[in-house]
Amino acid sequence: MTLALLFPGQGSQSVGMGASLADAFASARDVYAEIDDALGQKLSVLMREGPEDQLTLTENAQPALMAVSLAAARVLKVEFGVDVSRAAFVAGHSLGEYSALCAAGALTLADTARLLKLRGQAMQRAVPVGQGAMASLIGPKTDLALAEAAAAAGSEVGVCVVANDNNAGNIVISGDKAAVDRAIEKAKELGARAIPLNVSAPFHCPLMQPAADEMAEALADARLIAPVVPDVANVTARPETDPEVIRRLLVEQVTGRVRWRESMEWMAGEGGVTRFAEIGSGKVLTGMAKRIAPDAESVALNTPEDLEAFAKSL
User: What residues are paired with 164 via a beta bridge?
Assistant: First the structure.
């Protein structure tokens, strides 16, 4: 069995997430306390009690999702003796790449929390609310070619690009609101369903360049070492271990496409991965894994019971 650990991105947050881990394990509570200290904020209380509109804010959702992922990874190691080094690869969706790198020892927990807080704030600052938009193109006819054609139509009136190539039948576009609206119309003409996303900014598009500049500055000062297992990077869809390459790719990731489908296909193909485990909140990546790599086993590790069963299965 060749294992890859997956770390979820924005959209997987929900009030109460990670609470069962904190209730069951001191090791999880320690992770939450360390992140609260790093941020000077009671993020753990917001995660447990809400309100949801505050948790959904990008600057809170990003470190909160990382917190649950890292708490689960810590519990796996401390309580069940399963270290991240048991995996052949780690990979994370957008902000999840920071979780993956932290779990693999490339970044400290405190630095990761601070970087994600800043990343969320910088992304929010980059484009005034209401000026940008994102939309999910879904349905059996939706593939990268269709999404590129829709984005090209949108580009006639503003910035519009493919932001997330999640899997066949689920591709996200991002850019200026007018351009995304135009792209939605084109996508419908081409036979896709298009759903505007309830997001606060147009992520993973050139409009995020001011945020990329802020992250370049912050990452330049961050201590980043080689991860204990390769990180399959969003930007290249290939495994990376060189700290300086990873640092550069994390900056490019702010404006660049999340090549998730290609990342998963590479892991299941050349990478030889036969089992994917999603660590943290929700089951979004598990669903994608089942569609992209149906021959591999895919599990979501959210609860103490999930973690115990997973550890026993290894």
Answer: 172, 258
**CA gap 112, 102 in Å, rounded:** 7
**Can you list the positions of beta strands (E) in the chain?**
3-7, 89-92, 132-138, 160-167, 170-176, 193-196, 231-232, 239-240, 275-279, 297-301
Angle at 277 between CA 273 and CA 283, to 5 degrees: 130
Query: Which of 119, 69, 58 is CA-nearest to residue 254?
Result: 119
Say which of 93, 99, 204, 298 is annotated catalytic: 204
Q: What is the rounded CA–CA span in Å between residue 187 and residue 39?
A: 41
Global pTM? 0.97
> What's the rounded Cα separation, in Å, for the pair 303 and 21?
6
Query: Using one digit for the tens of pLDDT, what is the confidence trace for 274-298?
Result: 999 999 999 999 999 999 999 999 9
Distance CA 104, CA 227 (A): 5
Sheet holding 160-167, edge to edge: 160-167, 170-176, 132-138, 193-196
DSSP state of 84: G
94 is catalytic: yes
Please tell me which residue in 12, 27, 69, 94 is annotated as part of the active site.
94
Give catalytic status of residue 204 as yes or no.
Answer: yes
d(CA 244, CA 235): 14
